[in-house]
């Protein structure tokens, strides 16, 4: 709230508060609703009449204020534009890896989640596996840590005698 208030004050100097308040009061709500409907359909809206230009200016001003509020749609739009600019300037990354080991199917994860000390692979139903994993979130964390450490050691070759794949 503080960020939006501060950015609102930055946008509007004190001497122009009356003009801004008058503009807000004089906005034609039907034109604003029509512009909003076109924008929601993904259409490009150009201000042809003075009412449309006023509404678009209001949207622009609100967008400017919303850009300073963390987590708002406008701040996310600004971050997305910044990412695209960085990609354009620095080039896109050549590769990336997303790791998501399947904890509800892997026998090591099921072993961590179970209370038995001896590992015996037993074929369990999907619901049994799901409830076993859901009841023990610490086991999920242990399994994830084990798999990531194995990936770093064996695939990337960190702190080993062999070179990794990457």
Explain the overall architecture.
- The protein is mainly alpha-helical and 166 residues long.
- The chain has two domains: 2-90, no CATH class; 107-155, no CATH class.
- It has helices at residues 2-11, 17-26, 29-40, 50-66, 73-90, 107-113, 126-134, 137-155.
- The longest helix has 19 residues, at 137-155.
- The radius of gyration is 28 Å and the shape is elongated.
- The two termini are 46 Å apart.
What is the gist of this entry?
The protein is mainly α.
Task: Reconstruct the topology from this structure.
Elements: H1 2-11, H2 17-26, H3 29-40, H4 50-66, H5 73-90, H6 107-113, H7 126-134, H8 137-155
Helix pairs in contact: 1-4, 6-8
């Amino acid at each position: 709230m503080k960020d939006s208030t501060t950015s609102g004050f930055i946008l509007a100097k004190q001497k122009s508060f009356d003009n801004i308040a008058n503009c807000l009061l004089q906005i034609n709500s039907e034109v604003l609703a029509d512009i909003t409907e076109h924008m929601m359909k993904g259409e490009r809206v150009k201000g042809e009449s003075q009412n449309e230009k006023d509404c678009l200016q209001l949207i622009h001003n609100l967008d400017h204020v919303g850009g300073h509020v963390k987590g708002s749609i406008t701040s996310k739009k600004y971050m997305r534009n910044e990412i695209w600019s960085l990609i354009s300037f620095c080039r896109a990354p050549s590769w990336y890896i997303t790791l998501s080991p399947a904890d509800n199917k892997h026998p090591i994860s099921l072993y961590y989640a179970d209370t038995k000390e001896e590992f015996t692979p037993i074929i369990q139903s999907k619901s049994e596996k799901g409830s076993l994993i859901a009841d023990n979130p610490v086991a999920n964390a242990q399994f994830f840590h084990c798999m990531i450490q194995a990936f770093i050691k064996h695939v990337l070759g960190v702190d080993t005698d062999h070179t990794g794949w990457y």
